[in-house]
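Crash report, auto-generated. Payload:
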Amino acid sequence: MVRPTRFEITERVSRSAVTLSLLGELDMSTVPQLSDRVRHQLRDGADELTLDLRELAFMDSSGLRLLIELFDDSRRDGWTLRLIAPRHEAATLVLRATGADVALPFQTPPTS
Amino acid sequence: MRWVRAATRTELVLDRAHNAVISMDERGLVTYWNPSAEGMFGIESERAAGRPVAELIIPERFRAAHVAGLERFLADGTGPLLGRRVEMAALRCDGSEFPVEMTISAIRDGPGWTFTTFVQDISARRAAERERERLVEELQQALTGSERRFEAIVGRLSDPVTIRDRSDRITYANRAALVHLGFATTEELRRTPPAEIMRDYIVSREDGGAVAMDAIPSVRLLRGEAPEPLLIRTVHRRSGQERWNLLKASPLLDEAGQVESTIMVIEDVTEQKRAERRSEFLAEASRALASSLDYQRTLQTVAELAVPHIADWCAVDLVDRDGDRVSVSVAHVDPDKLRLADELRAYEPARPDPAQGLGLVLRTGEALLYPEITEQMISGAAVDGRHLELLRAVGFRSAAVVPITLGERVLGAMTLVSAESGRTLDRSDLELAEQVGARAAVAIENARIYSERSQIAHTLQQSLLPEELPDVPGYELASAYIPAFEYTEVGGDFYDVWQARGQWMLAVGDVTGKGVEAATLTSLVRHTLRATSDFLSSPAELLAQLDATLKRQRRRSVCTAICARVEPDGVTLAVGGHPLPLRVHPSGAEQAGEFGPLLGAFDEVDWQDRHVELPPGDTLVFFTDGVTDALRDDGERYGLERLRGALARCGEDTAAQVVATVTAAVEAFQAGEHADDTAVLALHRRPDHEHGDGAADEI
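Recovered output after restart:
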């Protein structure tokens, strides 16, 4: 069985701007949780979404794929996506390895 | 036909359930409402359909909490009420409230969740409790008064009541107590020593343990303690009838305030206790069946849940494609008895007798109940002396066999046996087992559909990998591909080695996405690379072409890949968002090449060719993130450093040895199965002295 990885989302809403802070591991077992939460916020009328990845301990390619899809959706549907770069090496690795660190809307580029 | 979704067998069974059964979807809207719910809440199922459960049955003051709880579960999967018995107030259609006991379970239903609630109306139980308390109080007061008044009150109590003296001898028993204990007169009862009164019964605590004499509430009262009511289970030795009793004792004090005697009320809580155990079992079994797609493992869990809740033995048998019986799981209250089961199984044919027992159930799909198994039935079933001995050792008292059916098809059967507990199984046990059987059928079918679907995806995926690696002169190639285990997200790892314009090319990559979709994309990636290599030889340009092709797809299609051109002294490669390969040499292992952007993902990007020199004996190891992301059960990832460490010890090993080292290291690291696809491809430059073979091929 696939072990459920530890993952938490904290939510801050101020009018139509929503910040989701992620804690733990974003991988194929937790991506659906984040995806559901974001879609839920968008349905509720959010037009500015910030994903705070600072406390993310790990991200795999399925997590990256979700970020790319959200960026696609934001440009197509006219809302704003902002990303705050992760601090942990295991979470920045996939971003740097794929060029996502410069191509996705990070407020400050992921370093490490 | 009812309005409910295509009535599944589970729902047909639930239609007949005594408890109200209500299901709702993620929005809290009713999707199922059984006939008992119609009666309990006074709302017909047609009217309940699609309406919020909150408005129908939850008193207004609790509605906000209900909505918040549902949202919380959907957000983070926690639900403190799930799977437990909870007592609360419910609302009837006329606005009146009544107390209920309910169990809620959440079940994955396709992409969403379905919540099923079993509700039991406990108003009658509550009223009886209040009435009993009042009467006992009255009794205590009256006992200071006249004998006649005392008789008059106790006679009104339908519960057995006994009065015991300081040595716990019964001095008085009301009518109900005499019937309960099996005595004709109070005199006869008085003459019998306390320890012998229950001789016709097997008495145990709820957990199955023996009831100590000094745990009896009346005895504890005499010791000066304030005892809690004691729940006991009695099984009549002769009839096998099981009852649950709650023993409550109150003191009668003398003038000095000392306990003179005790009044013990024996409350019969059999119905309530059974309903409780059943709904617990049903909820736990449903949860187990919905929790995993490995139905063999879940059926074992279900069998284990059945004991000792409803039986002493539980066995599940399925029918395979050839119609043979396959024993899937056996559980017994006493693990030592499992050895008996194994020995007994040797006597059971693959095709059981279609005229009786298991064989009959598998043939007809109808449940069978044997309330009383006689010595005659046992000796009739035995095929030889040893078999008879074994059958007797089990001590069969009663048995039930229920089918696991899907539509008309009988998938298998569940057998429940009551033995050492001495109780007989009845119709309500049979109904309960049928409900579990119906759920097991759905779980088995889901698992079958799933495994078929993922098998198709895997087959497709594997068909996209080269069947055998070609001989590349001067080099040795080896690879391993381990598909993800039991996960819907079948990733699309691939590798390929081919010849174009007289040169050997290789590619390794990972397409993100699911199943068939991923396989289709893999096929597109491989063909694009192969086709483009007929007119381009720069790996960086090949990746740029692939990137352009991916961006023309209707759906966002991204992949990681490394493309390499094999040269006599090493390779020239370009990397598109893929983990860098590791070069293994006699003194260690290092990353080679340079990261480039993910393919199909970003605008205005390009890729660079890098030459990686491979001296003779060196090996370049390509891998996908299934290797480095492999998860240990404590949450630790395998990671690049461990991989480097494992490879650093490979020295001048051959490609096959290097690949074996990597797969063995990852398997040893992760406790369970591979969560993701994993691919490894090693390119080993043959040492100069071996060069002969490859060179000869070339000439």
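Post-recovery validation: Residues 1-10+19-121 of chain B form a domain with the Beta-Lactamase fold (CATH 3.30.450.20).
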